[in-house]
Amino acid sequence: MKFQQYVTRTVKTAIFLLVVMVSCLVLQQYVLRNTDHNSLRVEGYYQEPLDSLDVVFIGASDIYTSFMPGRAYEQHGFTSYLLASESITSEGVKTAVKEIVRTQHPGLIVIEANAFLYGDADNETNEAHVHKFFDNLPFSFNKLEYVEKNVPVDQRWEYLFPLIKYHGLWTEYPERFHMMASNLSLDMRGYNYLKGFRTTAEIYKGKTPSLNAKLADEKGELDLNPKLQQQLMDLLDYCKEQKLHVLFVRAPHYVTEETYDRVKRSNKMASIVREYGYSYYACENEAVKIGIDDKRDFYNIDHMNVYGALKFTDYLAEKIIKEEELKIDPLRTGLLSDWDEVVTSTNQLYRYCDDLMTKGDVKGAQEDVLTLVSLGNYSGETIQR
Amino acid sequence: MKFENAKKGVRKFIISESLFIIATILAFGSEIVVLQSGTPDDFESLVMTSLGLFFAAGLMTLIGQIIQLIALNQARKDEKQFKTALKFVVINLIATAVSVLTAGTFSNIFSGISAVAGLLVDVYIILGVYCVAYKLDYKKVQTSGKINMFIVAVLFTFVIFSRLIVIFMPVLSETLDIVSYTLEFIGHLALIIYFFQSKVMFAETTT
Lengths: 385, 207
Fold this sequence. Notes:
The complex is a heterodimer of chains A (385) and B (207). Chain A has 385 residues and is of the alpha/beta class. Chain A has helices spanning 2-31, 37-46, 61-64, 69-76, 90-103, 127-134, 141-150, 156-160, 163-166, 177-189, 226-241, 260-275, 287-290, 306-323, 333-359, 369-375, and strands spanning 55-59, 80-84, 108-112, 199-201, 246-250, 279-282, 298-300, 303-304, 363-365. In chain A, helix 4 (69-76) crosses helix 14. With 207 residues, chain B is an all-alpha fold. Chain B has one domain (4-205). The A-B interface holds A 1, 3-4, 7-8, 11, 15, 18, 22, 25-26, 29, 43, 46-47, 102-103, 138-141, 184, 186-191 and B 81, 102-107, 109, 112-113, 116, 120, 123, 127, 130-131, 134, 142, 145-146, 149, 167-170.
């Protein structure tokens, strides 16, 4: 029977092709993938239900180590997510804003300033930093636009199909297994426990003295790198065009002589942003006012530990509520228990890191299976300051 | 050859296809309700109506699939293509369950497997009836089988392309769902006509 043979052969060929495609997809998504905390964070964003976020934060490690969405929800009732990636580029920030417009409609978008404050534009072409963000974005016109505009022709396919770049990662197993398990676990669960927050349990004992005490009076400005300034202005134009409610923030750092120029560039950026009619919270200059303790609240010169993050979160969240007149949408009934879990996990993480630091142990803490298992030993009750 | 098992199976296919048609209409209605723009006061009642229709559609589909399973289990005794269809029904049910219970890419992969398996169920049911018609030398049903196979191929192609388009333009998701439901409705209608023709074939050739 020719018709039967024809149909059977066509079906078998189609199934074979589909099996090959699905296998490649599974390998690319779970096995041969450079999964790290950036992947879990960015991917977790896309699992948030539509229009369920009141605030979305964009930026680099400065913001994902300083702001705790679980704490903000517990204390002030607004939901938020950290769509941030390690040393994200200015183009990455622009793409992130476009992705937020495409996928969520938060009442406020908060952009941490770091991407625009480098002294040169080298970070824009740092392949590792670019991949850390863009590898984890799903297919979209925004992603294609970035690739077409910024990526050399011979490298484009590896941005669209990361399997081409990472096919050699099989040699790094079984060490990578726990991150693969974390990725799979996130997909099975369908939501992120920490909403992108990550930290290191360590107290920085810097030999170089901190200059944070004098920042409140620092009004000096230093010009931004011309390319980064242009990127900033393109971003501001886009935000105006889309009528977005955007806020710019500079998180506290352990400022030294070496990094002082960034403070002045931050002041310059504040002037530019305010000219466009947007707010800029120079929290780096207000570190003393916030109560940040240089001797206790940082784990290195660029990032706060959980002690500092708690203070900063309380400060920024209250400021957002009061000064930005944030409209908080009531949470859908089905999401209330998810966010209760986020609060519990955040409080457990704080206690876990506090315990480690008290003992003098140094360890990274993020949304991976090993850390999440450890959190079970700690209370999820509210942290009292 | 009487093909009694296939005959009984086809009768049950008619019932299951009828339920699938009702489910498609309910799902279509649910999508139309979602696209309504009412006042903020209407929003909750629109959401509840849409969810209610969607739930009813799901229930109809589930009952239809159970009847389809029973039909295939019976019909496979007379024609091996129904046995293959039965395997794909089981794959479809498992894939749908995994897709519903998980999220992210993992869920999407299984949703895709479920969609493909569902279409292959139709392919092998059509082929099964075609093979019986071939053995009974009943040309009308054979021709109808080829037409139905073409319709399923069109549906298959559309489903694959619409899943790709939605990745880039999620705003088209509801519109593509409506087109998909319309095509599914046509597909189910064609299938039910095919099964009625098969019923006539059995009545004419096996008495």
